[in-house]
Amino acid sequence: MTWRPAFWLFAAGVVALDQLTKQWALEALEPYVEHPVIGDLLSIQLVFNSGAAFSLGDESTWILTIIALVVTAGIVVYGRRAQARWAAAVFGIALGGAVGNLIDRLFREPSFGEGHVVDMINYADQFVGNVADIAIVGAAIWIVIAGLMSKPILVSGDDAAAGSAETSGEAPGDAAEPSTDDASRRG
Question: What is the residue extent of each domain of the chain?
Answer without folding.
Answer: 5-167
